[in-house]
Amino acid sequence: MTVVTFFEWLRGLLRRPATAPLGLRQLAIRRGIDVGFAVEDHLLRQSVFANAIRRDATIITAENAMKMGELVKARGTYDFTRADAIVAFARQHALAVRGHTLVWHLQQPAWLQALSPSELRQAMRDHIATMVGRYRGVVKYWDVVNEALSDSGGMRDSLWFTALGKTYIADAFRAAHAADPEALLFYNDYQVEGLGAKADAMYAMLKELRAEGVPIHGVGLQMHLPLDEPLAMSDLRTNLRRLAALGLVIHITEMDVWVPLPATQEKLQAQAAYYEAVLRTCLAEPAVKAIVFWGVSDAHSWIPGFFPKYTAALLYDEAMRPKVAYERVRSVLT
Ligand code: XIL
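That is the input. Now the predicted structure with XIL docked in place:
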């Protein structure tokens, strides 16, 4: 009798998981990749977010705090408070940091507009040297140039392109490399995940930069995905493979899956399945080394503000409960 009871007790003990299920952080470490989120410094000061990052992330990106317009409101006067707070949090919790972003056409300071082309080129180089130099050895990955291509695959008519021509891109990478030769330098863009005119244009541009010996090491695929315009997995796979063949590291840099209003249980299930399919396809390619989600919870996602017909794009709901999407991402990483 006693013996049976003992075996029952032992069996119960073995069946019970020894600890709580592993968070995404431990799963990512086991796989040898980085997983994480875009963050804001004020959210990191809330324990519910800080705990989620500690549990689920090996890497973070500043959602806004490292953009030029946020840092350098007046020429020559930097305010590093928010960027430094994010970097300090990362150091404290042994997280890698993606620096986002050095050269972009949005969230630019107004004073840039008044510069002559030669002053603008110098301002770009100075900004890159300042940022990459300040965080040298800590920010391992930089989105050096963000969204330089137009939606049809030409060069975007940004201030940079209009004043400097397309040489600003190679110039930016060279300046970043000079400031931190160890950092991995990325070109980052959206709607370049599958195949199409813009993805082809990006591929051609990256190929040319590599052939010219420009210090560019990676490509960031933002992966902002509306649920009702699904990406073909075969196109994604083909694109990932051709980019990898250029010798580039691939990061998924800003992933979110937008649910068309209203967010029903059915659509949230479909969202979870889509997260899973995309990440499975990405992680099958050894060149894909990091997955970053563009925020932690639906309460702070940029999507409803920018695309009002969509909602609920992230892994945690507005009350910070893990969604079914979280569970599916977990199972992909397991
Ligand atoms: C977005 C932020 O999420 C918003 O908070 C901000 O108001 C605008 O920018 N591509 C990028 C990101 O590279 O920097 C953008 O982030 C989203 C699209």
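Residues 63-64, 146, 222, 254, 302 surround XIL (CB under 6 Å).
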